[in-house]
């Protein structure tokens, strides 16, 4: 008998920021579709319905609809964002249904459940947060927690609803965050299913990607020596102001390394002048990280980017921009898998640290990659988690 699992992809941004919403969801949708495919592959009785808010001009969902998978997409107009978000929130709060929730990583969860109220007057404080071995500095907490209009309260309310879910599916690698997962797994919380890394390695080309440009980028990398290039990319929404762009260009020049830089806005004329790199628009990030010419990644630390870099064992220099990215960056540094970007002339030095063939961070990232690949290949932890999830959900119907 077939079972249909419903997944909704609802943006959390303000409906008025239309461009933001469009960009926001491209990354989210990709990992959701990948997860849906894994459910399909694991158990042929499973069909997945993905509910997503339609955005403008993108053929992304249309392209997926063409795929012969047992995934059904329902696209809803923009004006449905609020009612759909409310409906989903209500479903999540109904204990009797078989709903579960999809998260990127345990630290995010722990934070939502356990984060003490931040002191807006003293942002130097450190917090003991479940899932973190060491106290977490206020400055890496998402800024909306400090929002005077009740950011923290809204966050906690939202988090409490997750407690009512039947399960929490997390896109993390069990072996990457064993401490956080252990802290979080107890009788008071719903069961946790760490199913990651859920990344799209052979997905459809993103509609933002210019295929001619893609070929140029890959050809350029093909001509570079092994591990010689630094790749810079700041996610689907990441862009910098012209003065910052100039500063980054200068720092790159000082680092002495070649680079590939994904800039989603046209660079100021002289930004990359005199440097030894290539500037492109939307980058084929997964392909780039998988290329052996790439030795380091300056990243905004979006969760997909982190998983992709670990999968290809490319160490990160963290450059978080907003929301949970600071916390992701902090976690990566704590785990010894990234180096923090310094904000002065030493920028060159943090880049050099990840590019150094014998560096500690490089060795640790390589170990993590091996762990992640081994887990997947042996039908290991993510495979078992998906199996447990399906069993628990179908058992609950
Ligand atoms: N991405 C890409 N090319 C770009 C920018 C982003 O392919 O120029 C992809 C990247 O591989 C990742 C996703 O877009 O899969 C971004 O997701 P992430 O969670 O890292 O950041 P967000 O965009 O949500 O801030």
Structure description:
Keywords: Glycosyltransferase, Transferase. Belongs to the UDP-glycosyltransferase family. InterPro entries: UDP-glycosyltransf_plant, UDP_glucos_trans, UDP_glycos_trans_CS. This protein is α/β, with parallel strands linked by helices. It folds into 2 domains: 3-114 and 163-200 and 375-396, 3-Layer(aba) Sandwich (Rossmann fold), CATH 3.40.50.2000; 211-371, Rossmann fold. It is built from 14 helices and 14 strands. The protein has helices spanning 18-42, 60-65, 81-93, 106-114, 151-162, 178-184, 211-222, 242-255, 285-289, 303-311, 325-334, 347-355, 360-377, 381-396; strands at residues 3-9, 46-53, 71-76, 100-103, 126-127, 136-137, 167-170, 192-194, 229-233, 258-262, 277-280, 294-299, 316-318, 338-340. It has a 6-stranded parallel sheet with strand order 11-10-9-12-13-14, sandwiched between helices. It has a 3-stranded parallel sheet with strand order 1-2-3. Helix 8 (242-255) crosses helix 12 (347-355). The radius of gyration is 21 Å and the shape is globular. The two termini are 12 Å apart. It binds uridine-5'-diphosphate. Uridine-5'-diphosphate (UDP) binds at residues 27, 30, 206, 233, 235-237, 262, 282-283, 285-286, 302-305, 308.
List the keywords.
single chain; 397 residues; alpha/beta; Rossmann fold; 2 domains; six-stranded parallel beta sheet; three-stranded parallel beta sheet; 14 strands; binds uridine-5'-diphosphate
Could you state the order of secondary-structure elements as H and E?
EHEHEHEHEEHEHEHEHEEHEHEHEHHH
Approximately how much helix is present in the residues?
A: 40-55%
The unreliable regions are: 11-24
Largest beta-sheet characterization: 6 strands, parallel
Mean pLDDT reading: 79
Output the CATH class name of the largest domain: Alpha Beta
Q: Look at the helices and sheets and give the structural class.
A: alpha/beta
Keywords: Glycosyltransferase, Transferase
GO molecular function, one term: UDP-glucosyltransferase activity
Family: Belongs to the UDP-glycosyltransferase family.
Pfam families: UDPGT
